[in-house]
Amino acid sequence: MFFHIQLERNMQLHPRHFGPHLRDKLVAKLMKDVEGTCSGRHGFVVAITGVDDIGKGLIREGTGFVTFPVKYQCVVFRPFKGEILEAVVTMVNKMGFFAEAGPVQIFVSNHLIPDDMEFQSGDVPNYTTSDGSVKIQKECEVRLKIIGTRVDATEIFCIGTIKDDFLGVTSDPGAAA
Amino acid sequence: MSIEPFNRLVRLAARAFYDDITMKGDNQPKTGRGDNRGMAVVVLDALTRRQWVREEDLAKALKLHSKQLRRTLRFFEEEKLVTRDHRKESAKGAKIYSAAVAATADQKITKEGEEKMKMHTHSYCCLDYAQIYDVVRYRIHRMKKKLKDELDDRNTVQEYVCPNCGRRFSAFDALQLVSPNDEYFHCENCNGELVAVSDKLAAEEMGDGDENARRRRQEKMKDMLQKIEEQLKPLTLQLARVKDLPIPEFGTLQAWEARANAAARISGDSSANDSSRSSQAQGYAGTPMPFLGETKVEVALSGVEAIEERAVADTKPTSVKVLPPWMIKQGMNLSKEQRGEVKAELSTDQMSQPDDEKKAKAESEDEKSFQDEYVKAYYAALVQRQEEQAAASKRAQQVENNGTSTSYLSNVVSETPSERQVGMKEKREEDDDVEWEEAPPAGKAFKVADLNIQADYADASGGDDDDGIDWEEG
Ligand SMILES: [Zn+2]
What we know:
The complex is a heterodimer.
Chain A: E1 2-13, H1 22-34, E2 38-39, E3 43-54, E4 58-59, E5 66-77, E6 84-93, E7 96-101, E8 104-109, E9 117-120, E10 126-129, E11 135-136, E12 141-151, E13 156-161, E14 168-171, H2 173-176
Parallel strand pairs in A: 8-13
Antiparallel strand pairs in A: 1-5, 2-3, 3-5, 4-5, 6-7, 6-12, 7-8, 9-10, 10-11, 12-13, 12-14
Chain B: H1 4-17, H2 39-48, E1 53-54, H3 55-62, H4 66-78, E2 82-89, H5 91-102, H6 112-117, E3 120-127, H7 129-151, E4 159-161, E5 168-170, H8 174-177, E6 195-197, H9 208-231, H10 233-242, H11 253-267, H12 275-283, H13 292-295, H14 305-318, H15 325-336, H16 339-352, H17 358-399, H18 403-413, H19 419-429, H20 435-462
Antiparallel strand pairs in B: 1-3, 2-3, 4-5, 4-6
Zinc ion binds at residues 162, 164-165, 167, 187, 189-190, 192 of chain B.
């Protein structure tokens, strides 16, 4: 799920940036530091949408670096248990398949794949129904449900299932080829 | 507000879920004597026949120790079936409740000094029908969902075990376990090929035994699910029946008391003022009947008085019996509605019952015979009254046109909410007619007789209420 929230961060800036463009430098550094990172609590920071407040800088003794408390708005992405996501399959093997929804990695183990889908090994390993009408392979899109998340300080990993109503392949590049 | 379908729901739920609940004291040894299974059902059944009730009175009525009852009620409060209210009250406060129970309005107010001397905490309890409906549905839903999820292995995070070193991994470690060389997961420790663990309970077994255990477990699960469907069928049917009905609400204790007393005041219930009666009601867990005023039918028939008096006399010794409010309601309907309408109601009721519930049919037949008797008595009284009225109206004719009288009569025969006003008007016009003055108590007594019929019926059928359902053990 996406959220638009306000976060706060203490930014350290080198003295060489102190000048007329101090604020721009600070914002640029903030984007570089924060976007694409993951915090266990808030999820992935997708994009910074605005800087609300930059507090008074504090000069750190000995180094000359200055610490600014910065409040900023950002869009975060945080997967939840029970959430339905659309994801792109990245790898298929006998144990199940991996998929990505943006920055989130999801693993769907074979017992959470419908029973009528069988693993087919080969050049393009895939899961296929007995009549061949549905095929899960690399690059195809699936809709899945998160049944568990593991949130580390810097990473979120999810377990998903497609063994439920309205879940499964949504578009299949292999079928067109 | 028909409460009976909801009471049936409570009784079914009690037998389904609380039949073998033991209310054990903390330090009570489990002896044969301490085994009080089934008490929960008795308490819930008793509550279906009451509205707000003081717990001491309930304990007395059920011949239970008040501590034991309180433990049970606390359990039901946690189960969200029962609302409880506790308040410190003086003798006066208790009397307000008694007043509500006896549906009487004019209790003497105790003096201030007396109040301060005795302040006791009294607890009251009452079924929370709205919540019961939700709780029962939720309970069944959870039971089924748990089994179904387990059955399809849904929502379970797969576990893997290394056959070489026995180390366990979960699907969360999947990223670290993939190997570039083959299709399998490999142990981080010894690079052995990992094996999926089928389910948590059979986790110790591995290999072929694993599959078998899983199959056995699935069979068991399916079996349980089927049993749930079968055995809870009466309950689910009742839930479906109750679904679109308005849920009976008694409100808070205070609101209920206020309403009850107000209702009593409006109806000017003279017989309830009888102190012996009210104290009786109180002593025997006083079946609260505050809504009598709502559905009361006052038939202004002075000719019935003789019958009424007999009825009252008959009632006195048995009036201590518990009178289920829902039955009273039905009785009132009968006296109020035309007979044909009631019959139609009954038959639709029967149709909605499942076929196997022969008991219900028998009950309604039972009920019909009582109603028949009652209706006979009613019409006999009515004919008698009509004759008298005819004589009276002849007298009235000398003074004025007899139009009012006859129209009044026909009003009485059919149902009339405005009957009293007509009576008043009559009284103004014919000051010498004493019969009108006596009319309201007459109607009252009639009502009591009616209740008694219903009470007997309740007594007769109450014992084996739930014979229609067979709860299978295990
Ligand atoms: Zn190993």
